[in-house]
Specification:
102 residues
Length: 102
Amino acid sequence: MSSHEDDRSVLVNILTGIGIGAVVGAVAGILLAPKSGSETRDSISKSLDSLKESVGEYVAKAGEVIPQKINEVVKGVKKAGDELKEETKEVVEAANEQLAEA
């Protein structure tokens, strides 16, 4: 894994942790706040709407990143295949030269 991928992974983990912490804090604050039942239900509903929006944004970002990563992997595999093909060709040519000299 490259340094860039490590940095991205750390950033995703940090943002995920912040998001989870915010949700847990909001739910705890709502449940512990001295409000009437209808106010509490309204607050919970708003928090769930916010969570739904955040998850949607996270999924959208993942939808952008995943195809890019797949492209990078495909390019890497193609490059490795091309290099292996070239190395194999060189080995075969060298072996043919040695056989011709023998």
